[in-house]
Write a structure and sequence with these properties.
- There is one protein chain.
- This protein is mainly α.
- It is about 70% helix and about 0% strand.
- The chain contains six helices and no strands.
- It has helices at about 5-10, 15-20, 30-50, 60-70, 75-100, 105-130.
- The longest helix has 24 residues, at about 75-100.
- The mean pLDDT is about 85.
Amino acid sequence: MEKYPELIKKPECAEQFFNEYKGVMPDKSLLAGFNFALSCDLFHYSFNKYLLKDGQSFYRLGESIRKFYSENADNSRRAALFSIFVNEYLTVTRDLLLDREYYELMARFDEAEEKVRQTVNLLMSEINRPQSIN
């Protein structure tokens, strides 16, 4: 893992994203913002761990994504912001891999990116589905 120091360093994407979007966060409480940033950090860590370990299954990464959406099922705006974070993070990571010429990771990245996008789209559609009135 020491071969890819840029992927191992302390997550900065979540903090940068939070600082950029905190003005449109659905609630202004410090705890909600902290939990959002923590979820973003967990995604960042889980994604990079999955990317760097060949034998790693997608389960933990998928679990970190599903956990956020299940905890925020009643807050579609926060869920949408998390989706935006995931999308931006994948774009930044792809650019980093190409910039640093880590071509050996690209096949695994492409596979992981597809799975993550499918999971996020599925979970967002669940949140946005109109609830039936009984």
